[in-house]
Write a structure and sequence with these properties.
Number of helices: 29
Number of strands: 32
Radius of gyration: 35 Å
Strand content: 15-25%
Helix content: 25-40%
Length: about 850
């Protein structure tokens, strides 16, 4: 009840209680028939709705007026409030529904449909919701609405209390009720089928009767590989109970003498075998699509089974099972379960966008593995199946143009075919009850194709690109999958990158994806902190990650802009090229150092690629805008991009505000320096100054202290993780900070960040008189000469009160003009396209 009261969108409630379940269902029907609501739903006592459940459902109803029944994702709720086993479901999937009552606990039904169905059927007690969904689908089919009338909201909106139920039947009785419901559903449709318990409760197996036995043309493309081909043909002949089939072997210029003799022998026996085993010749370059298309044209069968030569039948009913689905009205393609020679899963359907354009889920798992909510063991509809064993009606195959032998000669032709067939209104059914062995890409792995590897790689890349060009929007949102499940795993794992799960239609703010180059200072100040502040302020739907998204993931997120910091490894540049081709996002390249001109003494110089300028120019040229931290950088890189924009560094108030170092007033002033290994050259400028003043001041070093200077430094603190840096710097309680900067082109292009860090803490500063530290900051600037540094420090610490006032002035300056949260508009303008 509490979860209903907390709904964002108001709902009306009725509490219904009855001693007997059959009376309860009658009472529910009576109450819901009399209710004036447009939509009705039932939930068990103890179950809970997510606070946004009614809101999201109401939004879905507005967006999809054709929907008449809606289900959502769900999870389990323990008695102590833990959420377990999230079930991220596919969109409406008839064959999965006939295998498992997967639609689950929350069914929202349009009132007029509920009334037309006569409400819940008391005879279906224990499985009344399953019965309602099946009858609703039948009604919608008869009305011409079809699957489109059943909607799915892919959000976990229902929390089912473990053990909750209004039914008092035993579990075996509930399972029997579900089976009876499914049997009555098939009977009402006039479908001859047998229903039996599935591999686990509460699943079921539907065996459809073979109403006819039309001829099936089994097409086996091959080249050499006699052992595979012979095993394949012999297994088909020995282990195929289905009576009406022919075998067409398509030979692509086999060169192996034994393979040629075997093929010639088969060809010689064609007449004696009554044409049931024929050899077709396909000379020329290897083209899997063209080979199959030629064979389909020559096929005598009403159905064609594409079968790889590295497969083998394992059970005699495999083709009976596949044909029992292929003969069903509305089914266009049927796929089988394929196992590697070691028995592990090679194919259990295809998920679009998984690990690239498409991939097999559960690959490498044991054959008895259930998969995610039975997906590896239950008959279901997929968007695609592999052509290693693919059954299709010849008429349907030819209607959609067959396999695309121009764009997809070798790769992705099967997925492309399935998507064309699905677009034509046919189901793609995968059955685990037809099981075959499959080596897996034996022709490609075995170098059967006589073409250099570089050419094959280029062709594969071109076919991959062509597939993205044709199908990318569909790859991001496979209806047989769920956007809350990851595309980088084959195991139906939950997505760990939240923006990839966002509702694609929910865009209240600009969507921005940012990639930092590191988790250190550069990444923090230029990418991570600005994104964090923009999100906190509610100005963007943003996400920061160092993981490169594949095209299907980018399509899921669909950012308005993408910001890439120092992405200059070749795989990163290749990703940028993909972004430019496949994503509409505005691309921003970000850099805050003169990386093409590192100082001689820099410890990073040896690790910088010798062709860094070439890489940088390539990467920046793939973007619409270059953002840098300083004017010297903008000048140096003016020719690298059509638009160069300067956004200076700022400090994040949320991280730095409230830090108040003490002024200890000790006998000697505390003078400090903070820096890392990248600042070795800077520190060398004042090494003699440190030695000279060791008896006059207490030197405090943070981050780096060379061994040669350690005897002169009173306190040394090693570096800390970046989140701890502000507090640690503040804990130094400095009376004066120094910021030496070596005079070189690299440092001239640097920013004033060190002054901001010291200044926000109220530390007065003596610094090198170079471009980054010039301007209106109230600091002491000195030439990089020993005597000037010595004099400046001595004069500064000679009057502690004046020194403190100088620190206060600098702190006020930084807080007034250099806090990040006060300049979010600057970052937003830099990261978004011009409006």
């Amino acid at each position: 009840m509490a979860s209903l009261d907390s709904q964002w969108y108001p709902v009306s409630m009725q509490w219904i209680q009855s001693v007997r379940t059959e009376h309860l269902l009658n009472e529910i029907n009576h109450r819901l028939f009399a209710d004036e609501a447009d939509w009705v739903a039932l939930m068990d006592a103890g179950d809970q709705l997510a606070p946004d459940a009614s809101f999201r459902i109401a939004q879905a109803i507005r967006k999809h007026p054709e929907w008449q029944l809606i289900y959502t994702d769900e999870d389990n709720l323990t008695s102590d409030g833990q959420h377990l086993n999230p079930h991220c479901k596919p969109d409406f999937n008839l064959d999965y529904l006939r295998s498992l009552p997967y639609t689950g606990g929350l069914l929202v039904v349009r009132k007029d449909l509920f009334t037309a169905l006569g409400g819940f059927d008391p005879e279906a007690e224990g499985a009344e919701d399953y019965d309602l969904v099946l009858r609703a689908w039948e009604h919608l089919q008869a009305a011409g609405v079809g699957d489109a009338g059943i909607g799915h909201v892919p959000e976990v909106l229902y929390h089912r209390l473990q053990g909750s139920s209004h039914c008092r039947k035993s579990i075996p009785e509930i399972l029997a009720a579900g089976q009876a419901v499914l049997e009555r559903h098939l009977q009402r449709l006039g479908i001859a089928a047998e229903v039996s318990p599935g591999p686990f409760p509460p699943s079921y197996r539907v065996r459809y009767a073979l109403s006819a036995a039309p001829l099936v043309s089994i097409i086996i493309p091959t080249r050499d590989q006699l052992g595979f081909l012979q095993r394949c043909i012999e297994s088909v002949i020995e282990k195929t109970r289905y009576p009406a089939y022919e075998i067409l072997v398509v030979d692509n210029d086999s060169q192996d003498p034994e393979a040629r003799r075997y093929l010639d022998l088969l060809a010689e026996q064609e007449e004696s075998l009554g044409g049931r085993l024929r050899v077709l010749r396909y000379p020329g370059a290897f083209n899997f699509s063209a080979m199959n298309n030629q064979a389909v044209g020559a096929a005598r069968g009403e159905y064609c089974l594409l079968l790889n030569n590295d497969t083998a039948a394992l059970h005699e009913d495999w083709l009976d099972e596949m044909m029992s689905h292929a003969l069903r009205p509305g089914v266009g393609i049927v796929g089988a379960k394929l196992l590697y020679p070691d028995g592990k899963i090679q194919h259990a359907g295809v998920v679009l966008g998984m690990k690239g354009p498409a991939e097999h889920p559960f690959i490498g798992r044991p054959p008895e593995d259930r998969g995610y909510f039975g997906r590896a063991q239950l008959t279901q509809d997929y968007s695609a199946v592999t052509a290693a064993c693919l059954l299709v009606r010849k008429e349907v195959f030819q209607m959609v143009g067959g396999l695309d032998e121009e764009r997809f000669q070798v790769s992705y032709n099967d997925v492309d075919l399935c998507l064309k067939v699905r677009e034509a209104g046919h189901r793609i059914v995968w059955t685990p009850w037809a099981m075959l062995l499959h080596e897996g890409s034996a022709s490609q792995k075995g170098e059967v194709e006589q073409r250099p590897s570089a050419q094959k790689l280029a062709r594969f890349a071109a076919e991959k690109t062509a597939f993205y060009d044709r199908w990318l929007p569909q790859l991001a949102f496979d209806p047989a999958y769920n956007r809350h499940l990851s595309l980088v795993s084959t195991d139906f794992l939950l997505e760990d990158q939240p923006p990839l799960s966002w509702d694609p239609a929910w865009r209240p703010r600009p969507r921005v994806l940012v990639h930092s180059a590191d988790r250190e200072g550069c990444g923090e100040y230029r990418i991570i902190a600005p994104m964090r502040a923009l999100r906190t302020a509610g100005l963007v739907q943003g996400w920061e990650t160092m993981r490169i998204f594949e095209p299907a993931e980018m399509e899921r997120f669909s950012p308005d802009s993408i910001v890439l910091q120092r992405q200059m490894e070749w795989p990163q540049i290749e990703a940028l090229e993909r972004h430019r081709r496949f994503s509409k996002a505005f691309r921003v390249f970000e850099i805050d150092d003169l990386i093409t001109n590192l100082p001689t003494k820099s410890v990073h110089k040896a690790s910088i690629h010798k062709d860094i300028a070439k890489r940088f120019r390539k990467a920046a040229g793939l973007c619409n805008r270059l953002v840098v931290a300083t004017e010297p950088l903008a000048k140096a890189y003016a020719g690298f991009s059509d638009e160069v924009r300067v956004v200076p560094n700022y400090l994040e108030r949320a991280r730095w505000d409230g830090l108040a170092p003490r002024r200890r007033g000790g006998p000697k002033p505390r003078v400090g320096w903070a820096g890392g290994v990248g600042h070795t050259g800077d520190l060398e400028l004042v090494a003699d100054v440190v030695r000279e003043l060791a008896k006059e001041v207490d030197w405090v070093f943070f981050g780096l202290c060379p061994d040669a200077l350690r005897p002169y430094v009173q306190e040394f603190y090693p570096g800390v993780p970046l989140p701890q840096y502000p507090a640690k710097l503040a804990s130094l309680d400095l009376d004066l900070a120094i910021a030496p900067l070596e005079d070189n082109a690299f440092n001239e292009a640097k920013s004033h960040l060190r002054l901001l860090e010291y200044g926000v803490l109220g530390y007065p500063v003596v610094c090198s008189d170079l471009t980054p530290y010039q301007g209106d900051f109230p600091v002491w600037r000195v030439a990089n000469r020993y005597r000037d540094w010595l004099k400046a420090i001595r004069e500064a610490v000679s009057d502690r009160d004046a020194l403190a006032r100088q620190g206060d002035l600098l702190r006020e300056k930084v807080r007034q003009r250099w806090l990040l949260e006060d300049h979010l508009d600057v970052w937003l303008q830099a990261w978004l396209p011009r409006r």
